[in-house]
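Researcher: Next entry in the queue.
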Amino acid sequence: MMDFAQTLEKVDQGIRRGDHVGAQLAVSINGKTVLDTSVGMNEPFQPLEKDHLMLWLSACKPLAGVAMGILMDRGQMDLDRPVAEWIPEFGTKRKETITPRHLLTHTAGIRGATLGWTPKPWDEIIGMICYSRPEPHWNPGEMAGYHVDSAWYMLGELIRIIDGRTYDVFVREEIFLPLEMPNCWVGIPEEEYEDWEDHIATMYDTSKGVPTEQEDLTQRASITCCRPGGNGRGPAREFIKLYEAMLTMTRGEDGILKAETAKDLISYHRKGMFDKTFRHTMDWGLGFMRQSDHYAPGEVPYQFGSHASEASFGHCGNQSTAAFCDPDRDLCVAVLFNGMPGEERHQKRMRDVLDTLFKEIG
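Model: Structure for this entry, 362 residues:
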């Protein structure tokens, strides 16, 4: 039985360096959990528990791909139909040809419509994006650059218009609950906040030597708002259930998605394209990152370690999280840190932990 002692030592080293205060890790092989643990502290004198709701940040972006897949299976979504056919206001200022496929693959060219973490009314956010201008000389689908949040708000609005439910409710009812992820949310409802408040993990800025609570990420207004591109929360032990389900479906068994739809989501829809945000060549499925480390070994950011196969798919979150599946090894992993130490320190920390984990798996 693997004890992952070396992996956990890497996590402990990060605590001693001040990279994070605590972490959750969950690993399954062949659908069997082989690691489910928490390390360190959530707050002073309060250990980080396995059932704390960790902030996933951008690691929650694949949920929008799965949500689009559910609509595709119902015959309600054509990824190559212009978004403006559902949302006419979006078609202004040269955005009339942008499609859901462009949004899912970060090729839409609306990176500049970034909203940040200050909570705003949903309609105001959608209006700001609709009336924004795309980047000059950007041809949707022909150029790539990671979109922090704008594309994901528009995908959420598409779901609201087509299905009638808001994005947070749709994801909760169509993904989390069917996959037995009851402690996972993309924005905890205001009326339920007090029931969950004691379970919400704190996120820290650890870039300046002394851990400082990231109040813009942990205040009540941020926790309860629906931010499709970055406000997912839940325990690592439940997060990997999404990837266990994707692994099963991509191997031919229908689940919350038809098997062929699940395969399509993780197939290459953007391959060999230079990402203008990350400044590296990176591959993408529909909402899912594909392992791209082979383009520049050890240098491509937000990868799944040096040893993950090119078949691996998943997503990482800003300076904190990684969740993915390596189908060549029947492996699903979620590593969630509660400290954001800056880009350089985080990339080294996460790669060290994941590389050590792969070595212990063998």
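Model: The chain has two domains: 5-60+182-361, 67-167.
Researcher: Noted, moving on.
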